[in-house]
Structures are given as structure tokens and as C-alpha cells.
Amino acid sequence: MIKLEFAHIEEVRGIRKLDIDFQKRTFAISGPNGSGKSGVIDAIEFGLTGQISRLTGRGTKGLSVSEHGPHVDKTKFPDAAFVELRVFLPGIGKSATITRKVSSPKKPKIVPNDDDVKVALAEVADHPEIALSRREILRFILVEPTKRSDEIQTVLKLDEIGQIRSALNTCQNKLETALQTAAAQVLSSRDALQLHFQISTLRAADLVEAANKRRKLIGLTEIAELTADTKLDAGLSSAAKVAEFNKQSALRDLNALSDEAKGFPDLAKMEAAAIVADLSKLEVDPALFAALQRLSFIERGLDLVDGRECPLCDTAWEDEQHLRDHLKAKLAKSEEARKVQQALLNNGTAVAEAAIRVAAFLESAHKVAEGQGEGGFVRVLTAWKTNLEGLKARLTTVEGLIGLKDRLTVGWLEMPNVFPTGLKGLTEKVSAMPDQTAALDAQTFLTTAQLRLSDYREAMRKNKAAEIACASAKAAYNIYCSVLEDELDTLYEEVQKDFSTFYRVINEDDEAKFTAKLTPTEGCLGLDVNFYGRGLYPPAAYHSEGHQDGMGVCLYLALMKRLFGNRFTLALLDNVVMSVDAGHRYQFCKLLKTQFPDTQFIITTHDRLWVEQMKSAGLVTAKTSIAFHSWTIDTGPLVESNQEIWEEIAAALGKGKVEAAAAALRHHLEYVSRHLADQLGATPQFRADGNYELGELLPSVLKRMGDLCGRAANAAQSWGNAADKEAATKRGASLAASNAAMSVEQWAVNKGVHYNEWANFGRKDFEAVAAAFKELLASFRCETCESWLHVTPRINPEFLRCGCNEISLNLKPKPN
Amino acid sequence: MATLQRQIAEKFLAKLAQSREVDAEKIDQLRKLLADQKRRVKAEDFLKIFSLPTGGDLK
Q: In which band, very low, low, confident or very high, does the pLDDT at A746 lie, cut at 50, 70 and 90?
């Protein structure tokens, strides 16, 4: 898989032109709703896969990448819409650039265009599931078991495995049918051989004895043993071999056919009646009939799918996978039709075997008729045999059987009216022929015997080959099913275990004993989760929506881990962290950091505070996060450079724009105060609406930080830790000095001289204000990782820490 | 081929070889078929492989 190094996005979705330096590291994008965050995810997904999930799937009918991928002002110029991504491919240790235009999403430009690079990028393109949006996470949790099974199978690409199993099953069924046909041929040729030899059991010794009797008569050497190479007529001259007509054998064939014909009316009668009954059932149940027709039609269509255009109706789909999913869904609805289909085919095969047997008898009579110059009867037999051959082919398909109802009702064999008299006449003609001399009889007996032995051997060979093919296919199918079942059981066990572990990491404070149970049954995947030790219940039964969101993310991560293993290096989490409440955010960051240290997450959230918490937790840094402060249709997302706030203020002041600098500082202080109040556990006067003013937050933050520094110094003193005592004291002193120097509290508390007044300052005056606040805020940050300090745990904190643990001040004094 | 599919295919081929129901030539053909990422496997593909001649004759 890959990691993202850099992205250049132009005219895609809501973005006009945007560059982001991802640095192969986890990256956070924040901004209010509608500021263009999801557009970035869309663009990355498009760059990697050629698809945009938000424009496909449920509820997106009428949307497409080609029409709705470009910026709304560029829909007529899709060439202008493109994404250029520089990626790193860890598997081969190479970087590459992939440029994909909306006008030709399937033909990205790849540099370098090396085979290994193309293979690696093709694998990524085959995995759109690396992008997860919030509307998708609940599909794992809040769906009925059958749909969950489908969703998870789709994510894990198990549908491909299902396709292989289905193809193996179809193959073994077809080979089973072929084996039945081959076996019928063996029986027919054996009957013909036994009839000629007039033996009831086919034994090599009997054949040799009968042949040697004739060979001896005409002075040929006797055959010692019947081997695979034995020729019963060996030694006969070529001229003698041509005269293969043997009167007695011919009469036996004709009499056998005559006897067999007496049973023709009852031949495969029950099977034919069963087919007629099933066809009648279809006639009175149009829905079932339609389902059956669709079944074969769709199965054939599914086999022919090659691209995004439906081979059945020419409709163009978003992509080939959507078309396949659509056809498979239709197949799944036809279970009853499938049962009828199987019954029809089984009975059809039985009738076909009977037809093969009849055709074998006709073949013998046909040869006799030809030899006797009975042209009229030969034509009758030829036509009938051809008829039965055609029938045989139609009996093995549902479409063929549907058109055979009338024939199967009145008598499928369609014996010609003139057959009985023709057979009788031919038999009489042969009987009336003078008996052959003993020598000629012996010659023709041997010639005919050899022909029939060859036919039998050929039938045996074919049957043996069919047996081997059938056994191979059966073994392959059974083994595949067995391996598949074992692997899926293992997979679900591992997913279940990982899912539970991940969820416990996030909720270790209140659900440390959380467990989950995935229960796979045919076509379904049940999910039950433990609710505070009270038993297993469906996720939606008792857990809050926030917890369910958390479960969705955890199950997704568990699936990704199983799907990619150590190649899970990139995931795009679009707004999926929004429901993780403040109390569990550090744990969520811990989950990503500890369980997926080699995975680059691109995370979007509307909550700017959340990103600050990610920074404090060390998941991202100022350099690996950006904030969009707004969006316009003409400009796209407007990026706020948090990490360069002081440079931004200095730049504004450099241009004499004090008002702009004041606005930037005010904005920055507002969110930093809110964030620090949360991080440090400050206690401003409670407001039910949560709408705290800067003047309320900042003083309480300053007080809290001063208290914490004092507690840390005292604790260090009690433990005899001089270094920590000095660090805590120094930080507290620095804070106090900055605070006193600029009377921050006065600024903050007195709304009358509030920050709007800054706009009326001169440049020099405001530079001093900005510098003082910069120094003040530095007291709250780690100089190394630049994260804001936080207390941990949140309740009854024991440490004051930064994201990299460079700062880790103990708050608990040594017990007396 | 994704990890899971590859695992299943490899275990399938290994077990098939142990079963001795399918000869080495066919297993080799199956391996090539399942490794082909560019096309979906169809019943006809398996039919061709399992119908390959393996000899046998009347003794």
C-alpha cells in the first residue's frame, strides 16, 4: 500500500486549487461544516482510485464522477479537474506521482511508470474502502445481519471468493452431467458388445473364447489374452475387414431393437412427467417463471460482464463492480427458482440418458439398413437419430426444457410412424438372406466384434476421463468450501477480537470489560456487544449513538487490519470522529497511535478543538494539520495557518493592517482558551449553554495553570525531585510574569476595553500586545513537540504533560 | 489479489495437492488461473482445467 507525501488538487468538487504537504504522517484537517474538508478526501480518493464514494452507492442515484466530480464552474471542462498525488510505496521503497483527470479517471499518469509502481498503485485503486465517511460507519453496526454480512464481505472483497466458489460449483455440476452422459454411452456400447457376443456378463475370458472360436475356424492364431492393444480381427485381410456384415449379429441387433421398442412408451416416463409438472407450475406462477427466466438470463449476463456496460441491456453503470452487485442481488432473490431449475435439469439429464440409449440401438439398425440398401429406412433412422441428438442438447438447459413441454407431454421419443414396419421389413429381409458360410460368418463376426469393442473402449476412456474430471472438480469444490469456511471462521474470530480490543482502548474508563460476538451463519453476520456486563445485545439496543459510532470505527479498523495486515498504511477518515466525546478523545488517539503506528490517517473534523486534542495526544502536530476557516464558491477552502499565527499577525502589521492582525489574535485566543480550559480542567463559572466568553475562560485557564505549576512544584519537593521542582517553578514564574506584564486579566474581564479596541491601536502598540500574548501562550506549550499541555487523567489528574512526554510533571505529592 | 484471497487460494491449492484427487499439472493450471488478477474466474475456466486428459485405458 502507500503513504501520502503531497497533494495538489485543482477544480475538483469544492476545491479550486489547493496544495497539502502530508509528509507521510497522520494529518488532521479541521474547519466548519461546508468549508471543504470532505472535498479534500474526495480528491485524494479520486486520485488514488478514480472513484468518489460520496457519488456512488445508496442514495446517490443520478450522481457520477464525470458529471459531478469537477468544480461546479468546470463541469463543462472536466479536463481542468485533476488531482496530483505524490505517494510513497513502502513495499518497494519508491516514491511516485499519480495524476488523474476527471475526464479520464481510468487512465492516470504515473511517474515513474515502472511495472512495480503500477502494480502497487493498481492495488490501491482496487481498494476504495481506504476512505471511510461517517455515513458509512454505521452500515457495519446498525444494519440487519444479512446486510452487515454483505457490507463486510464487500469491504473484505469476499465477493471475489464467493465468485470462485460459485464457479467451482457450476463446474462440478456440469461435469457431473457430462459424467452421466458418458456413463450412458458406456452402457449402450457395452450392451451392443454383449449383444453381439451373446453374453450376459462382460468378461474378457468370454470375449477371447468367442473370438478364438471364429479365429480357429478361419485359420487365424488364437488370442492368448485381451489387452488394451488386442485386435480381435487381427490377421484378417483388409478386404475381409471391409465385409463387416454378419447376418446373425445383424438379426440380434434388429431383434434387440424390436424388443427395446416395446418399452419405448414408458421410457423415462416419470422424469418426463416431473418436468411437465414443474413447467406447469411455472405457467400458473408468472412471478416464479419470471424469476427462473431471469436466473438463467442473469447468470449468463454475469458471466459476460466485462466493463461497466451491462451485456444484457447496454445500460452504463458507474463501474463494473456496481453492475456485478446489481446482478448478484437479483440472483439472490431467486432461491425458489433455483430449486425448480435444479429439479428440471436433473430430470432432463435422466431423459437425455434414455435418448442416448435409444440412439445407440438405432445406430446398429442404421448400419444394417445401410448395408442392405434400404435407403428409405436409412433416412427414417437418420432423421430420428438427428432428432434425438437435438433433443438431448435441449434437455440439459432450462431454456431448452421450457420449449419441450408439449413434446414431453405427448411422448418425447417421437418414434416415426413408419419405424415399426420399417424395422419389421428390414428384419424379414435379413432373415431371408441365405446363411453366410461358416468362414464368412466367422470373419464378419470378428470384424463387427472389433468395431464394437473399439466403441466400448472409447466410451470407457471417455467415461474414465469424465470420472476423473468430475472427481477432481468435486474435490476442488469441497476443499475450497472447507478452506473458505475455516478462513472465514478465523477471520471473524480475529475481527471480533480486534474490534473488542480497539473499543476497550477507547472506552477503558467505563467499558474495560467490553466484549463482542460476531456470529456468522449462512449469508448472515450477527453482531452482539456486551452492555456493561449485563449480557450481549445488538449494538443499537442500549448503547448511545456516540458509542455506536465508536463501534463503527473500531469494526472498520479491525476489518482493515485483517484485510491488509501490515500493509494497512493509509486510511481517510472523513468526519467519522465527530461522535467521539471529549472524555474518550485521548483514548481514540492512543488507539490510532498504539495499534496502527505505521498507518497514516487523514482525519477531517469540524471540531477545531478536537484537532488541538490530537496535537496534545501527539497524534498530529502543528505541521501535520491545517484548518479551513471558511469556503466560497469562487475560492474554495480558505486555509488558516495555525502554526504560523504569529507570522500571520506580523505580516498583517507589516502591511499596516492592525485590524486584520487584531482579528487574527482574537480568533486565536478564543479557541486556545477554550482548548486549554478543556485540556487543563479549568473551572470557569458554569454556563448551561456552553457559550463561554473569552473573558470568562482565559482568567480561569491562567489560574488553573498557576495552580497546577504550584502543585507540581510541591509534589516534586515532596519526592525530592529537584529538576521537576525547578521546571514547575520556572514555568509558573514565567506564566505569572507574562500575565502581570500585560494585565491579561484586565483585558479579558473588562469587555468595555475588549479586543475591538486593539483595532484602534497603532502598529507599535499592537506589536507589544501580540508579543506579550505569544510569550504568555508559550507557557502552555512544549517547546519540543509544540503541543498544548494537558492533565491526565482528566478526573483527579496525576500529571501535567505534553504530547511527546518531554514535559511530565507529577502532581501527586509523596504520601506522608 | 488481496491478502485474504491469496491466503485462501494458497491453502486451497496446498490441500488439493495433498488430496491426490487432482494431478500436479492441473494444480499448476489452477494456480495460474487464480493468480490472474485481470479477470474474474468463470466456471468455463475450471471446466477446461479439470477436463484436461490424464490418460487411462481398458486393461
A: low
Look at residue A63 and tell me if it is in a domain: yes
**pLDDT bucket at A523, cuts 50 / 70 / 90:** low
Chain B residues in contact with A473 (beta carbon < 8 A): 46, 50
Same structural domain for residues A109 and A19?
Answer: yes
* A801 part of a folded domain: yes
Please report the pLDDT score of residue A745 as a whole number. 45
A590 vs A585: CA distance, rounded Å: 8
Same structural domain, A612 and A726: no
Would you call B3 and A565 a contact, using CB atoms and an 8 Å cutoff? Answer: yes
- Predicted TM-score (pTM) of the model is 0.59
Count other Cβ atoms within 10 Å, centred on residue A423. 22
Do A745 and A618 reside in the same domain of the chain?
A: no
Q: How does pLDDT run across A415-474, given as a tens digit for each residue?
A: 999 999 999 999 999 999 888 888 888 888 898 899 889 999 999 999 998 998 999 999
Same domain, A677 and A779: yes
Task: Tell which of A640, A669, A687 closes a domain.
Answer: A640
- Chosen from A171, A460, A564 to mutate, greatest number of chain B CBs within 10 A: A171
Q: How far apart are CA A598 and CA A578, in angstroms?
A: 23
Q: Quick check: A479 contacting B, CB < 8 Å?
A: yes
Distance CA A172, CA B30 (A): 15
Burial degree of A788 (CB within 10 A; 0-12, 13-18, 19+): buried
A325 close contact with B: CB closer than 8 A: no
Identify whether residues A667 and A801 lie together within a single domain: yes
DSSP-derived letter for residue A309 is B
Kindly identify which residue of chain B lies nearest to residue A484, measuring between CA atoms.
Answer: B8
Last residue of a domain, one of A611, A640, A669: A640
The residue segments making up the domain with residue A795 are 645-810
Residue A673 included in any domain: yes
For residues A791 and A683, membership in a common domain is answered with yes
Work out the minimum CA distance from B35 to partner chain A, whole angstroms: 12
Q: Measuring CA to CA, which residue among A677, A661, A550 is closest to residue A612?
A: A677
Rounded distance between C-alpha atoms, residue A630 and residue A416, angstroms: 87
Search chain A and give the residue with CA nearest B4.
Answer: A563
State the DSSP H helix or E strand holding residue B15, giving kind and residue range, or none if neither.
helix B3-19
Query: What domain count does chain A have?
Result: 2
A471 → chain B, closest CA residue? B21
Residues A803 and A719 in one domain: yes
Residue A62 belongs to a domain with what CATH number? Answer: 3.40.50.300
Q: Does B38 touch chain A (CB under 8 A)?
A: no
Q: What is the pLDDT of residue B56?
A: 38
Task: Based on the fold, state whether residues A717 and A769 are members of the same structural domain.
Answer: yes
- C-alpha cell belonging to residue A155: 469491504
CA angle A292, A296, A302 (to 5 degrees): 130
Cβ neighbours of residue A122 closer than 8 Å, sequence gap 6 or more:
none
| C-alpha cell at position A714 | 510541591
